[in-house]
Design goal:
Blueprint lengths: L1 E3 L4 E14 L6 E2 L11 E3 L18 E14 L3 E3 L6
Antiparallel strand pairs: 1-4, 1-6, 2-3, 2-5
């Protein structure tokens, strides 16, 4: 889950999130497509499970990265949080 607790400022501020996994901590591969852009305060919850749009993490995953790509002119995103919940 990604949370923006404060309204972003700047001209057309946006964050697009990706998740990448790795079996070795060196080579990372994106899982599913990029998530929708966040442009206002709120939350985005995306499950990574079999049968979901993004799919499940591949077997052998030991590491993952949450990557945020920020765009816009002078974008400021106060109070950004990324929460990861894992079920085994």
């Amino acid at each position: 889950m990604v949370r923006l607790q404060g309204a972003p400022t700047g001209t057309t501020p946006s964050i697009i999130w990706d998740i990448a996994t790795s079996p070795d901590g060196v080579t990372y591969t994106q899982v599913g497509g990029a998530l929708g852009a966040l442009t206002a305060a709120g939350a985005q919850v995306v499950p990574y499970i079999t049968g979901a749009t993004q799919g499940a993490f591949p077997g052998g995953t030991k590491w993952f990265q949450v990557i945020g790509t920020i765009t816009g002119t002078n974008p400021v995103f106060p109070n950004v949080f990324v929460d990861v919940v894992a079920f085994m």
